[in-house]
Amino acid sequence: MPRIRDIAQVCKSKNAGPFHVTIDVLFEDPALYARVKATGVLNAALFARLYGVAEEDVQFSPYDAASAFKATLPRLVPAGDVGDTDVYGAQQHAPLLEVDIPLNDPAG
Amino acid sequence: MNEVRMLSTSGILGYGFSEEALRIGMAAAPHVIGADGGSTDPGPHYLGSGTGFCARLSVKRDLRLMLLAAMAARIPCIVGTAGGAGGEPHLQDTAALVREIAREEGLSFRMALIHAEQDAATLKAAVAAGRTTALAKLPTLDDATIDRAVRVVGMMGPEPIIRALDAGAQVILCGRSSDPAQWAAVAIRAGLPPAPSWYAGKMLECGAEPAVPKEPDCLLVTVRDDHVVCEPPNPIRRCTPLSVSNFALHENASPIRHVEPGGILDTADISIDAVTDRAVRVGGMRWTSSPTYTVKLEGVELNGYRTMTVCGTRDPVLIGQIDSYLAAHRDRVAARAAAIGVRAGGWRLAVRTYGRDGVMADWEPERDAGSPHELGFVLEVVAADQETANTVLAVARTSLLHADFPGRLCKEGNMAFPFSPSDIPLGPHYRFSIFHTMAVDDPCAPFPIEYEAV
Question: Which residues form the DUF4387 domain (chain A) (predicted)?
Answer without folding.
Answer: 4-99
